[in-house]
Write a structure and sequence with these properties.
alpha/beta, Rossmann fold, 8 strands, globular, binds S-adenosylmethionine
Amino acid sequence: MILQKAKVLISTVMGWDIPIENHERRLLEQEIMPYFASQIDVKKVLFVGCGSYTKHYQKIFARQEYWTIDINPLKRVYGAKHHIVDSMSNLGNYFQPQELDLIICNGVFGWGLNEREAVESAFSASYNCLRDRGILLIGWDDVPEHKPFALETLDSITKFQPYHFPPLNTWRYNNPHDSEDHHYYDFYQKRANRE
Ligand SMILES: C[S@@+](CC[C@H](N)C(=O)[O-])C[C@H]1O[C@@H](n2cnc3c(N)ncnc32)[C@H](O)[C@@H]1O
């Protein structure tokens, strides 16, 4: 126990990887991200919000140009080679319209990105920076302390269309085998110009 705590402490200070092992992480790391990493038209990826347990994600996207962003400057140590210290609301200052193929925003809405105006700006900027048919994945927790409001009430979200994620056969996934699991993955797609 003491050894384990010491390992976590040292790894945190050193900025080493400490993967989390649970259903939602396994799904993200072993199904969702590898699926997108294998797609030929996914070339530029942005991952929002960093931690010791997300550092190794750059290995999954080794074939892509992989970017990270976190508002907290201390998280830079867990970021990718291409890392931005700023709010997701200001994405437009860093990427051109149509520049990104995939944005993964897991555990950020309700975990710091909370104010309606900031969330609207973040998802609206995501829409602009994604290419046509690009994907925004939002991982969120359906518990009052981490759900400031329903995502569907955002104007910025209604611009997207739900994306039916083939491996899970749905656009919104929650573990059906565990009533205690309140984590959801929502897949949104930017409409093509004439859709
Ligand atoms: C609970 S952690 C989630 C980390 C990771 N994305 C994951 O998959 O678990 C939330 C992270 O989001 C960052 N964050 C909060 N608000 C943000 C914002 N507006 N823009 C960018 N990052 C933000 C925090 O600094 C923190 O590192």
